Amino acid sequence: MLVAKRTSVWRTRYEVSQDGHLVANWDGSLWRSGGDLNVAGQAFQVRGNAWGSRFSMLDKAGGVVAAADRVGRKRWTVTAGAVTYQFQRASAWGHAQDLYSDGRKVGSVRRTSMWGSDVAVDLPGVPLPVQVFVLGVLVTMWQAQAAAAS
Whole-model pTM above 0.85? Predict the structure, then answer.
């Protein structure tokens, strides 16, 4: 399981650790949907469309490594290579998102507390860069929802 701790009050920066060891960083963009992530020394860019419903994770050469579609809907997907991961909002009132495979819940992404901004990512079988991509997409979505609500 990954634990993402917000490191900045002013920006959407997270340090992602696994078993107490730093494995990745997420730095959300201030002016557009998406951000930058670094996973085990590899840099990626995450870019979203104007509505925040589609995101792409790009490598240094600009190639698409993963893509998220229908973000913000009850059911949405992430495609990485030939694999498509199915996500579903856990409830209409919360922020938690569950990962499904063959109709069964197999993982989740949740805030660690109701008031905090730290996130627990439990997505077994999903490659580490894709897990951090999902984290970045959800943090961006949650931030947009909070801004729209205020």
Answer: yes
